């Protein structure tokens, strides 16, 4: 029998021993005034096999794994049975570190461990995304009955077999739920939000993205019953209109993150309600809300001074007035995504850069009017810039990249730059980026003046960089006639 002070080496969460047994390992550190005790539980996957325990001190020694040692640890004598050595409270504490799969395996070991593994306190946070194809309504109902008031966080993302009835039972049983992810649960309707409103008043984070049956009635229900709501994602719930948003913000004024991506019926009036009622708003996603204009977004800027992340990509009606409003009212802005907003110009980005010095990520794809002037302002005023997309910004030249490469963000901050479809960019730009030691990825698709040699020189200075580019090999000339050269566009990942 191995003495308690002799160490058993730690291993991965699940290993396969050479003796043909699946073994699950879990560690828990227990501190006392004299020593740090590490408890390593080794559980055979076969049901009915009694678990064993080795209690270690901090004085580790190398341990040679052999079959006799393993057999000793799985012996059934009273000295080895962990159930008789540790109190239930400590065992529950150890079990709290296990994931769902390991808990289910432990539940098969013995009757005592079945009770411990399925104790509601071990099921406060559950993510069933990996099992989404197998999850049906009855599974959610059973989980809710088992967990009850212990459950705080549940993800059913992608579980398309779960509907309103199951979630009603869930809401009734799990009234302390705070975080609920129903992204892609396409069977649910307004009835689910009605149940959540009635029973789950502590709900703080709710994800309903791609639940296309959700309407304004859901937002009204959440407003009435979930006043603590801080994060709401209703992306692609395209039945939602300004009336639903108005009802929501009247009762949930503490919203900090709101995603309305793909809610194509929303108009400026919806944003005016948000700006007037949500002063704590930090993150707002309005991607492809095509009816949004300057009027609505300016109201957001004036009412939500804590705004740090704004996505308005695809809102093609907005102009420099938005950039001016952000610069004047939202100095904490860190993320700005305005891809395909073709009316934005250097003038607006100059105001933005001079006032929002914390910018870290900017997506300016297809902002076709910007020039090197924007890059000059960013290089001077935005030292924290990490990710910059300039795809299809066809007026950008090597000179703009030179300023960026010499700017405050270049040496330690800039990680990603996307330059695909910038036809004026040459190998000179790659030379200017050599000093960007943190650069991890660069996109160069359709940059026809970039060469393999230029990329090779860049990689000698930045050997770990990922360069995404392709080159168009020249096809053989036709046998007849003098027609112009043709190209075959073949992707090459460098």
TrEMBL record:
Region span, Disordered: 1-20
Domain F-box: 80-126
Superkingdom, taxonomy of origin: Eukaryota
CDD domains reported in the protein's UniProt record: F-box_FBXL2-like (cd22115)
Keywords noted in UniProt: Leucine-rich repeat, Phosphoprotein, Repeat, Ubl conjugation pathway
A biological-process GO annotation: regulation of protein catabolic process at presynapse, modulating synaptic transmission
SUPFAM superfamilies found in the cross-reference section: RNI-like
Record's GO cellular component terms: cytoplasm; glutamatergic synapse; presynapse; Schaffer collateral - CA1 synapse
Protein name: F-box and leucine rich repeat protein 20
Organism, as annotated: Gallus gallus
């Amino acid at each position: 029998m191995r003495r308690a002070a002799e160490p058993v080496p730690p291993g991965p969460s699940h290993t396969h021993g050479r003796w043909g047994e699946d073994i699950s390992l879990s560690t828990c550190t227990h501190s006392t005034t004299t020593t740090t005790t590490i408890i390593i539980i080794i559980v055979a996957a076969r049901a009915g096999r009694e678990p064993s325990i080795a209690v270690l001190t901090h004085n580790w020694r190398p341990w040679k794994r052999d079959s006799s040692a393993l057999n000793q640890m799985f012996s059934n004598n009273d000295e080895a049975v962990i159930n008789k050595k540790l109190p239930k409270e400590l065992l529950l504490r150890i079990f709290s570190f296990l994931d769902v799969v390991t808990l289910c395996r432990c539940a098969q070991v013995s009757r005592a461990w079945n009770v411990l593994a399925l104790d509601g306190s071990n099921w406060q946070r559950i993510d069933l995304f990996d099992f989404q194809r197998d999850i049906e309504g009855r599974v959610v109902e059973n989980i809710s009955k088992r967990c009850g008031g212990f459950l705080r966080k549940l993800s059913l993302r992608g579980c398309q077999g779960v509907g309103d009835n199951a979630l009603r039972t869930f809401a009734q049983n799990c009234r302390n739920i705070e975080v609920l992810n129903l992204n892609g649960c396409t069977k649910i309707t307004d009835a689910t939000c009605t149940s959540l409103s009635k029973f789950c008043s502590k709900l703080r984070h709710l994800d309903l993205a791609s639940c296309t049956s959700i309407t304004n009635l859901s937002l009204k229900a959440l407003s009435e019953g979930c006043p603590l709501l801080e994060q709401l994602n209703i992306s692609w719930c395209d039945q939602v209109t300004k009336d639903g948003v108005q009802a929501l913000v009247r009762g949930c004024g503490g919203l900090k993150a709101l995603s309305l991506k793909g809610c194509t019926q929303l108009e400026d009036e919806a944003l005016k309600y948000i700006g007037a009622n949500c002063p704590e708003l930090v993150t707002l996603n309005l991607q492809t809300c095509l009816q949004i204009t300057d009027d609505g977004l300016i109201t957001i800027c004036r009412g939500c001074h804590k705004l740090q992340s704004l996505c308005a990509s695809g809102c093609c009606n907005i102009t420099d007035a938005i950039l001016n409003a952000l610069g004047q009212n939202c100095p904490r802005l860190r993320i700005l995504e305005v891809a395909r907003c073709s009316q934005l110009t250097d003038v607006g980005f100059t105001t933005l850069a001079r006032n929002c010095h914390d910018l870290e990520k900017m997506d300016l794809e297809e902002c076709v009017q910007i020039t090197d002037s924007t890059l000059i302002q960013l290089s001077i005023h935005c030292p924290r810039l990490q990710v910059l997309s300039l795809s299809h910004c066809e007026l950008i030249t090597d000179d703009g990249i030179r300023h960026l490469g010499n700017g405050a963000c270049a040496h330690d901050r800039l990680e990603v730059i996307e330059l695909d479809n910038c036809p004026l960019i040459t190998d000179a730009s790659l030379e200017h980026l050599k000093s960007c030691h943190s650069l991890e990825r660069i996109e160069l698709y359709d940059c026809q003046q970039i060469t393999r040699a230029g990329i090779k020189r860049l990689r000698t200075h930045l050997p770990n960089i990922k360069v995404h580019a392709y080159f168009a090999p020249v096809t053989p000339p036709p046998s007849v006639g003098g027609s112009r050269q043709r190209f075959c566009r073949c992707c090459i990942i460098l």
